[in-house]
Amino acid sequence: ARTPVTVTVTGAAGQIGYALLFRIASGQLLGADTPVKLRLLEIPQGVKAAEGTAMELDDCAFPLLRSIDIHDDPRHGFDGANVALLVGARPRTKGMERGDLLEANGGIFKPQGQAINEVAADDIRVLVVGNPANTNALIARAAAPDVPADRFTAMTRLDHNRAITQLAKKLDAPVSEVKKLTIWGNHSATQYPDVFHAEVRGENAAAAVNDEAWLNDTFIPTVAKRGAAIIEARGASSAASAANAAIDHVHDWVNGTPEGDWTSAGIVSDGSYGVPEGLISSFPVVSRNGRWEIVQGLEINEFSRTRIDASVAELIEERDAVQKLGLI
Ligand code: NAI
Question: Catalytic residues (predicted)?
Fold first, then answer.
């Protein structure tokens, strides 16, 4: 068997944490031949509940699970971490302005980034799930100058998976026949799910849909507002599907994306497609040799350009706001 991989999960006592930890421990994150050491990071009030989850993990007798440690100090929680899933975040509460939200999350993601810089393993890979995910990732990244920038990513895989299913349903195709879909920009209501390069049953998806009104009035808003629709229906935000997307993201990052397809992830921009360098924005990506690469050379039409630009403009605003707050 391989050497164990240390996986740190923050917000471990939350609802995504509960949906995520059992799948990590069962081998779905890294593969069925990789033993896992779990480190759970919570705030002090969350530690007891995390201990309860750890008891249940014990009770599964997962063959790959080598240890579980619970911490409330990031300097211990990220010690030796090879993979860090930053799920715990400060939610927006009633009457909270965006500036307050960014500042509150800066108070979480800056010290976590510093701790990752100091104590994580050299090959650390970070996925930020907690919202606002792209900008939280930017804050953590800025606090970790010794870690290569491309190790900090933000999750847009849930949006990607949501878009695949909506498109598959529209064209009455199995989801496995949908390829090369892209989420661009911010993980927020401004995100742009792009079907112009997507393929369904090997055919161009936009041509197969052939209905710009459906794209504009149904598909894009359904994907972008899916989180709110789930809260409305379930009385709680998406958790199992978010955990599933986090598993997909890290699994593909470590093991590679399939030939002939790509996925979407929030990664540090190198300036591709007019997205300012250094922003953490969602792109079409493949993973090769353990690194995300932006798919190059796609032609961006007018319809896509205005929507990508609008979401990137929001990312720039968020970046400028956290810069003003001294968080990056
Ligand atoms: P939750 O409220 O059930 O759990 C959050 C947990 O984080 C709590 O147990 C809390 O004690 C913990 N926490 C708070 N601050 C922490 C800190 N500084 N260190 C360690 N733990 C801390 O929330 P849920 O439903 O699990 O969602 C977590 C985050 O994921 C939210 O920000 C949510 O908006 C986001 N999310 C992101 C998605 C995406 O696609 N990127 C999709 C769905 C949710």
Answer: 187
Residue 40, ligand 1, Cβ within 6 A: no
Clarify whether 187 is annotated catalytic: yes
Pick the CATH number of 5-154 from 1.10.287.110, 3.40.50.720, 3.20.20.70, 1.10.510.10: 3.40.50.720
Tell me whether residue 274 is annotated as binding. Answer: no
Query: Which tens digit of pLDDT belongs to each residue from 271-283?
Result: 999 999 999 999 9
Fold of 157-317: L-2-Hydroxyisocaproate Dehydrogenase; Chain A, domain 2 (3.90.110)
CA of 14 to the centre of ligand 1 (A): 6
Asked if 294 and 186 count as a contact pair (C-beta separation under 8 A), the reply is no
Q: Is 266 in the pocket of ligand 1 (CB under 6 A)?
A: no
Q: Best substitution site from 43, 92, 108, 155 to test ligand 1's pocket, by max atoms within 8 Å of Cβ?
A: 43
- Amino acid identity of residue 276, one-letter, is P
Distance CA 125, CA 90 (A): 22
The pLDDT of 125-151, averaged and rounded, is 98
- Cβ neighbors of 135 (< 8 A, separation 6 or more) are 102, 105, 280, 315, 318, 319, 322
| Confidence (pLDDT) at 1 | 63
